[in-house]
Specification:
Blueprint (H helix, E strand, L loop, with lengths): L9 H5 L10 E10 L5 E10 L4 E5 L4 H9 L1
Antiparallel strand pairs: 1-2, 2-3
């Protein structure tokens, strides 16, 4: 006889966020990545996870622009 294990809803799996998902933090990118404005970035950049993918921005990006992208 096989033991029946209750299944967790899919929301439980999606609710876990990686470290740094709640805020913009400085990150070093070795391979060029596409930024929030569509340009390529590398070196020291801002990075944030939106629950689906990582977002990147140049370090010289203004705070207001980062906050605008964080709301999306």
């Amino acid at each position: 006889m096989k033991a029946i294990r209750p299944r967790r809803p899919l929301d439980d799996y999606r609710s876990t966020k990686p470290a740094g998902a709640e805020f913009w933090h400085v990150w070093t990118v070795h391979l060029p990545r596409r930024s929030i404005t569509g340009t390529l970035v590398w070196g020291r950049v801002w990075r944030r996870h939106d629950g689906y993918r990582w977002l990147y921005a140049h370090l010289d990006t203004t705070t207001s622009e980062l906050l605008r992208w964080a709301e999306r």
